[in-house]
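Sample pair:
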Amino acid sequence: MVRILVVDDEPQIIRALRINLKARGYEVDTAPDGAAALRAAADHHPDLVVLDLGLPDMEGADVIAGLRGWTSVPIIVLSGRADSTDKVTALDAGADDYVTKPFGVDELLARIRAVTRRSQPGEPEAPVVRLGAFEVDLAEHTISGDVRLTPTEWQLLEHLLRHPGKLISQRDLLHDVWGPQYRTETNYLRQYMARLRRKLEADPARPRHLLTEPGMGYRFRP
């Protein structure tokens, strides 16, 4: 059974998530603040943490840093803050995804399923990924329909396809595809994502699979 630690200082959110998660077969622990969250994580070793950024005793990013000091447990951030800087800080600190308050429970459950699927050990990585009308072979670096990509386009696409459903921050993409000296060159990402959409999306102006999370990063939606 998957064990989830829910960290939030709003009792109604704690109650709603506990009810909905238990109804779907998850085991649930809760914590009202950052210190209690770190103690609960150390005591119970959850399989996933759902973490509010706005805690009464410390910043959510500090809780993430505390967890990342000893565990790689997936972390989904809940944020009621409009400023994307807080979310980017959380992602850079080691969070795996975020959901903005107010949120739909169905959306949060879908993110939980996606993150827990990615974290399951021993599952073989599929070399062929479906992207709309195309099949992308990650092992052979080929795309059905004789679509041609440049080496940089391939790197960017592969990074997204190997993390389905996950929000990948602009900084991480720039660092991993172009190198650490390019971590602020967000115009590179915009240009190359536009090129990928023109080649792979049925309607590049309304992409269904290669999605932008404004100010934060990009996500591949299968």
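The chain has a mean pLDDT of 87.
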